[in-house]
Amino acid sequence: MKTITELTITKGRFLDWYFDYGQDQENKQLRVELAESIIDQMYKVGFGSMSVQELFDNCNQDAIRAYYLQEYDMLTDTFDIELSDLGFEYCLTLID
């Protein structure tokens, strides 16, 4: 039987990764795409919104860096890799 490791990330740390990790141009593009999505909703249904959970559910979670997880210990963990490179199965949960 395979063991699946439970990993967690707070909403704040997820948003830090989502909006602030990477190149400035990529970060700007993410913000523009999010704004355009919300504006499109406003035209279609009269209001627009996006929850942190929706962002989390629709992002490439494998690209999140291990550094942003609750389980990462910056004093003892010497690696900062993408979750896809961990080498074991995991389940990532967004927490408050």
Report on the structure:
The protein is α+β, with helices and mostly antiparallel strands and 96 residues long. The chain has one domain. It has three helices and two strands. It has a two-stranded parallel ribbon with strand order 1-2. The two termini are 31 Å apart. The model has no long low-confidence stretch (mean pLDDT 93).
What key attributes describe this structure?
alpha+beta, two-stranded parallel ribbon, 96 residues, 2 strands
The whole-number mean of residue pLDDT values reads 93
- Order of helices and strands, N to C? EHHHE
Largest sheet: 2 strands, parallel
Shape: elongated
Domains counted in the coordinates: how many? 1
User: How far do the termini sit from each other?
Assistant: 31 Å
**Sequence stretches where pLDDT stays below 50 over 5 or more residues:** none
Number of helices: 3
Look at the helices and sheets and give the structural class.
Answer: alpha+beta
The counted number of beta strands is 2
- Computed over alpha carbons, the radius of gyration is 16 Å
Short description:
The chain is α+β, with helices and mostly antiparallel strands and 96 residues long.
Question: Could you give the topology of this structure?
Answer:
Layout: E1 5-10, H1 11-20, H2 24-45, H3 52-58, E2 90-95
Parallel strand pairs: 1-2
